[in-house]
Amino acid sequence: MFTTTNRNAKVLDEVRFANTSQKASTYSWSFGDGTSSSEEAPTHRYFKSGDYVVTLTAENEKGKSKTITQTITVTPPKECLVRIETSEGDMIARLSDATPQHQDNFVKLVEQSFYDDLLFHRVIDGFMLQGGDPNSRGAGPGARLGSGGPGYQIPAEFVDSLAHVKGAIAAARTNNPQKLSSGSQFYIVSGRAVTDAELNKQEASTGVRYPSAIREEYLEKGGVPFLDQNYTVFGQVIEGLDVIDKIAKVQTGAADRPAEDVWMKISMIQ
């Protein structure tokens, strides 16, 4: 009664279902992951690996129905990926293997549901979106946010191939000579247009030359290069740059806090 383009899909693949039901008028799909659809021939994405039992119940105008099931096998990604759900839309991000301490810490907190229901408490258009303060969970209007954390810091991990281009995920920190990162607070770069002259100035300041790919990405997407070699970049948004733009444009009040809360929920894609 239905076929699929891929019985052995990878996480995040678009799985297309072709409906072969005859004379049916309504359709009820269950994808085995808690989601459903009433479309005749839906497309679905899985965010976790595993075996999923897909069920289709097709019913004709006389009320006669037929149900059929198939099992879809979804394999895990090769990269370390997270899904960042927000009140303004969802993002997919890749965490870098080149910053193992930051990657391991972020994964640990995500698996503990540490970030669920926290806020992006500081948003500056053309700069960045900051969150990860545990004190922001349930924080009332006017609450002072930005000083909370898990009670530890992480050594800086500066990598030449990771820069503050648009969509970069980096660790926030207090002012300290070792440039130690916050144990939980992070920001996502929204950024602004960047010129060759700015990149040349940054190279002269830090003594670190940008790889050609990073330079091209800065010129294409924009970013905030003056933060490079000062704050640890440990990830990159690979889907949902438009969501960054939406959050960056929200109305803000005192201390750059959004006038209406922008919440987050982060989960592993594995």
UniProtKB/TrEMBL annotation:
<keyword id="KW-0697">Rotamase</keyword>
<dbReference type="InterPro" id="IPR035986">
    <property type="entry name" value="PKD_dom_sf"/>
</dbReference>
<dbReference type="GO" id="GO:0006457">
    <property type="term" value="P:protein folding"/>
</dbReference>
<dbReference type="InterPro" id="IPR020892">
    <property type="entry name" value="Cyclophilin-type_PPIase_CS"/>
</dbReference>
<protein>
    <recommendedName>
        <fullName>peptidylprolyl isomerase</fullName>
        <ecNumber>5.2.1.8</ecNumber>
    </recommendedName>
</protein>
<keyword id="KW-0413">Isomerase</keyword>
<feature type="domain" description="PKD">
    <location>
        <begin position="26"/>
        <end position="75"/>
    </location>
</feature>
<dbReference type="GO" id="GO:0003755">
    <property type="term" value="F:peptidyl-prolyl cis-trans isomerase activity"/>
</dbReference>
<dbReference type="InterPro" id="IPR002130">
    <property type="entry name" value="Cyclophilin-type_PPIase_dom"/>
</dbReference>
<dbReference type="InterPro" id="IPR013783">
    <property type="entry name" value="Ig-like_fold"/>
</dbReference>
<dbReference type="InterPro" id="IPR000601">
    <property type="entry name" value="PKD_dom"/>
</dbReference>
<dbReference type="InterPro" id="IPR029000">
    <property type="entry name" value="Cyclophilin-like_dom_sf"/>
</dbReference>
<comment type="similarity">
    <text>Belongs to the cyclophilin-type PPIase family.</text>
</comment>
<feature type="domain" description="PPIase cyclophilin-type">
    <location>
        <begin position="89"/>
        <end position="262"/>
    </location>
</feature>
<dbReference type="Pfam" id="PF18911">
    <property type="entry name" value="PKD_4"/>
</dbReference>
<dbReference type="Pfam" id="PF00160">
    <property type="entry name" value="Pro_isomerase"/>
</dbReference>
<dbReference type="InterPro" id="IPR044666">
    <property type="entry name" value="Cyclophilin_A-like"/>
</dbReference>
<dbReference type="InterPro" id="IPR022409">
    <property type="entry name" value="PKD/Chitinase_dom"/>
</dbReference>
